[in-house]
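Aim 2 progress. For DUF3784 domain-containing protein, the working sequence is reproduced below.
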Amino acid sequence: MYAQLFLGIFFIIQGITKHFIRKPNLLISKVVFQRLSDEEVSSYLKKVGKVNILFGLIVVTMGQIEYRYQPNPWIFLPTYILLGLACIALIIYINKRYTGNMTL
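Predicted structure tokens for this construct:
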């Protein structure tokens, strides 16, 4: 439970940082700013930041559901995996759209 909580908080912090800060720092590399123009960087970081916040909220929520309710693993795990893969697919799509790369 604690690993999911801290991982979710990390993604939420990373998403907030990407959404609001427009300069390289510990969580945003300089490569992003070198590959994209100034207009694209702002739009790209906002979209990726929102997806990171969503992914962090999903991880935290699913960790709390698992801890408090102990759901059936045959229903819980596929749901968890599908929600996580949807967020990862969105990040890959955004990267492909803006940079032409499929890297995370």
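The chain has one domain: 2-99. This observation will guide construct design in the next reporting period.
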